[in-house]
Amino acid sequence: MSADTAELKRVHTTDRLRRLRALMTDPRYNLAAYVVPSEDAHQATDCDKRRQYISGFSGSAGCAVVTRDAAALFTDGRYFLQASQELDDNWTLMKQGLPGVPTWQDYLLQVADARALHASLAGIGAEFAK
Predict the structure, then answer these.
(1) Taking CA atoms, which of 32, 95, 99, 117 is between 20 and 30 Å from 2?
(2) What is the distance, to the nearest Å, from the Cα of residue 21 to the centroid of all Cα atoms in its chain?
(3) For the chain, what is the mean pLDDT?
């Protein structure tokens, strides 16, 4: 099987999300949502695997948003098929650019208390990996 047609693997994220949500509800953090972009702190897209780890989505463009009771992966049309094959049932695929699909920023405003938001570029990332 060539690399182009290699089977995409679905990662089961239940335990990963459970552990992240336990940290989100920890009084030290008290987070309503956790945002995991494709880019790292230096805006490089090819070296950071946090979004892939938490969601299972291996495409190069996307943003994962985890709330206390939902998980959504935002990506564009280049990755709709790939994301639908890689995301497990814990995730909602948000197809950016389609009518009625909010940006991840607007989604956050709809589902989370803005005072308790946190970008994953700092904060609980290191503790989550333990």
Answers:
(1) 95
(2) 13
(3) 81
